[in-house]
Amino acid sequence: MSILMCPKCSMPLKLNEKTYRCVNNHCYDISKKGYVNLLMSQKSSKKRHGDDKAMIYARKSFLSKGYYDMLCDNVIGLAKKHFAGGAYLDLGCGECYYTERIKNAVSPSCTVALDISKDALNIAQSDAVKIVASVSKIPVFSDSCNLVTNIFAPIKESEVKRVLTKNGLLVRAVPLERHLFSLKSAVYEKPYENAHDETALEGFELVDSTELKTKITIDNNEDILKLFMMTPYYYKTSSADFQRLNSLDTLETEIEVNFLAYKPLK
């Protein structure tokens, strides 16, 4: 049974062949790439929503090399410990690298992968229900999700609390202060640490957490550049600073991430 609701009238969406339709006859076709666009936006259609193609393809290639497999393992560890089954929603799923691995590890009854970027979902390789939508207005029913993951992505606490069941689980991955610090040191003369991310979320109880602090070594310039391109720093860096990476053939950098498991207070 679909947990999707119509973004226009909030009625249930039912799938008929390749079209989702509600009782008010609002229709949403599944694209040739396998996603359905449920993004209701008043902004210009010319405006880019979410990550662009350069970031997406860099991230897809980098993640496929296994550099971040340990991050996924930590999310899976918390999910297996606290998730008792039911529907799974991945918020900010990107190309579904994490989505697919988590789904295969915990065997949910259904999986919905949500991202605001059409370009990311265009290349997502997953049999999850893939939807283009905003994390600030999630087109799924209240109390319908038993597991929500949010990995390096924006979050709106009130929406996550709304869609989670009473005993549902939210698992987040957030960077610690020195995550990728050596990468930034290779680019900037005065690198800065990441801002401290508060673990408290309004309306949630933190029930478990674990920190990963290790280093990875990248032995080729192509993957170093891809790692940088998949970070927000890429869009805030001058061409002169970016050029410093071109001379690097090897890089050892920190991987420091906090993994947090929450239950909603209902």
Structure classification = alpha/beta
Q: Strands of the largest sheet, in order across it?
A: 4-7-6-5-8-9-11-10
CATH superfamily caption of the largest domain = Vaccinia Virus protein VP39
Number of separate strands: 11
CATH class of the largest domain: Alpha Beta
Basic shape: globular
Output the helix-strand order: EEEEHHEHEHEEHEHEHHE
Describe it for me?
By secondary structure, the chain is α/β, with parallel strands linked by helices. It has 8 helices and 11 strands. The strands form 2 sheets. An 8-stranded mixed sheet has the order 4-7-6-5-8-9-11-10, with helices on both faces. Helix 1 (53-64) crosses helix 7 and helix 2 runs parallel beside helix 3. The longest helix has 14 residues, at 69-82.
Offer a quick outline of the entry.
The protein is α/β, with parallel strands linked by helices. 26% of the residues lie in helices and 28% in strands.
